């Protein structure tokens, strides 16, 4: 499936979070502890490559993310809620994350311990279309943690109710501000060499960006992500995949895709305020809205 997604990239749909190393928010602000329930997730695929995405703790043992972040995962998923992974702008000599003993088997769940790392199992929405059907996008996934996280350690975020985004008038969508949160680095000019905007590997921190709505479909929210219009503070990019989009403090969508390699302008987000997502969360995982 991941190979098929990379083929889609060549067709000008840049799928977020599926390249190693991954990247994240364009511009935006360092999140600090503003969203402590948003974490970085790391996993392996059966080809031995390691990928990272973003996810949100929505229950003490349940994280919400994108289907393309869970589809094809082997072994356990590693989770960290550290806001700063690597502060510097240069690649560290040693990876900040533990490696699996056998990358083709993936994490075993013994590579670290809480509160530094948590581990869990990935699950993909059964209706996920693999980016082939806009009417049945369903780019939703979850990670079920091996051990719950006490509320006094991390308070879970809330998922908005069904139809929340449908309550926004079409004429008001461009006036509605959404906040996306994710891990990685901004797109910026290189420190040396060709001076064109490039998605950089580091620093690797949790960031947030404010964006205004652009389009709404039964499955997808699209936003503008310009930093020159005086409203948006940035956009999402590689590695923000699966990260939350908040409206009035509740999760209404997860980061799904972008339309160019420098992560400027319109980006797409899988709605989670829809029946297909919420029925799955409730029926298969007992999530209570």
Q: Quickly give the CATH architecture of the domain at 2-13 and 37-84 and 99-156 and 275-285.
A: Beta Barrel
How much is the average pLDDT?
Answer: 85
Major β-sheet strand ordering: 12-15-16-20-19-18
What percentage of the residues does DSSP assign to strands (E)?
Answer: 35-45%
Number of strands: 20
- Coarse structural class: mainly beta
* Shape verdict: globular
Uncertain runs = 1-24
Number of contiguous helices: 3
Structural features, described:
The protein is mainly β. The chain has a domain at 2-13 and 37-84 and 99-156 and 275-285: Beta Barrel (Thrombin, subunit H), CATH 2.40.10. The chain has three helices and 20 strands. Strands 12-15-16-20-19-18 form a six-stranded antiparallel barrel. It has a six-stranded antiparallel β-barrel with strand order 4-5-6-10-9-7. The longest helix is centred in the last third of the chain and has 11 residues, at 275-285.
